[in-house]
Amino acid sequence: MRVGFAALASAALLCTSVIAQQAPQQPPAQPPGVPSTPMTAQSRPLRVYIHAGLKTHAEGQHDYPQFLADWSKLLTNRGAVVDGSLHFPTERELAGVDVLVIYKGDVGYLSAENRTTLDNYLRRGGGVVSLHDALCGPDPAEFANVVGGGKKHGERNYTLEADVPYTIVDKQHPIMQGMTDFTIKDEAFFLMTWSKQPEIHVLATAVMAKTESAAEHAGEVVPQIWTYERSMGPGTQPFRSFVWMQGHNYVNFSHAQLQPMLLRGIAWAGKYPVDALATERPQGRGGRGRRGGA
Questions:
Q1: Residue 222 has pLDDT above 90, yes or no
Q2: What distance in Å separates the CA atoms of residue 266 and residue 259, rounded to the nearest whole number?
């Protein structure tokens, strides 16, 4: 009986060992507040908010409302969920937004309430895309902390309408994939206030055209396209900014090299794969509508 009992116990232990090896391994418990499955770019569409402004300048220039209409449709047709307005977004409107696209002059003139809203958005890692003179305001150093560079309102720091010859500085960056040097007719900026800690990552530069407004700054080489990444401090998520300083002439938003670049820049700033907006949805399937729509 003793021998039989020992054999039975040994067999039971062996069976238990085999079952334990075959049982699926459970993932380690997540700390409180951390989702068990991290959000990925494939799990939901990119959420974009477009902050535009009232129309200024001559026909075909600084057409902020037209951009809101055109790019809301363009981004929606590429799978993004898009909302937007001609006012600075509220906390509620920015809830869940991945990237804030700004095409409006002098956004540096933010009220204290709007600045707090923007800071809270950046603290959670929300991305920013700044187009043309959005980075202009009374305190260029303050906005440089948001997008890497700021332009002082009221200074003569622009070329007006002139050639902007791009030199692609970082052809390996995913935003600039496949791009070659080219020239457009637009407006370039100089006398910028740059962030020092951290510095911008330059993607493309341009030589300042010889115009009356450029004066002695003609011939200077100045960054016109760049990225910027920063954290607001301990306990916050790092945010990304992408800047294209042109857009004076609205037609350039449809340029064969610039439009794909902007789509990649928006996706990059939202921390999505840069090709997330590259494919247009087939006609007839409809769009997702405004943020929160089906």
A1: yes
A2: 11
CB 263 within 8 A of CB 78: yes
Q: Which tokens belong to 93? A: 């409107």
Flag whether pLDDT at 58 surpasses 50: yes
pLDDT at 42: 53
Q: Which residue has the higher pLDDT, 124 or 6?
A: 124
R_g of the chain, CA atoms, integer Å: 25
Distance CA 218, CA 206 (A): 11
Sorted by sequence, the CB contacts under 8 Å of residue 55 that are 6+ apart come out as: 62, 63, 64, 65, 66
Look-up: residue for tokens 């396209």? 225
Q: How far apart are CA 290 and CA 266, in angstroms?
A: 17
Q: Which two tokens stand for residue 95?
A: 């809830």
| CATH T-level topology, domain 47-153+190-205+222-269 | Rossmann fold (3.40.50)
Residue holding tokens 């449709």? 73
DSSP 8-state code for residue 158: B
The tens digit of pLDDT for each residue in 165-178 reads: 999 999 999 999 99
Buried-state track 106-137, b at ≥16 Cβ within 10 A, e below 16: bbbebeeeeeebbeebbeebbbbbbbbbbbbb
- From first CA to last CA, the distance across the chain in angstroms is 71
Decide: 101 and 49 in contact? Cβ < 8 Å. Answer: yes
Alpha helices in the chain (DSSP H): 2-22, 64-76, 91-94, 112-123, 140-147, 258-269
18 pLDDT higher than 50: no
* Angstrom distance (rounded) from CA 229 to CA 247: 23
Residues 6+ positions from 63 with CB-CB distance below 8 Å: 55, 250
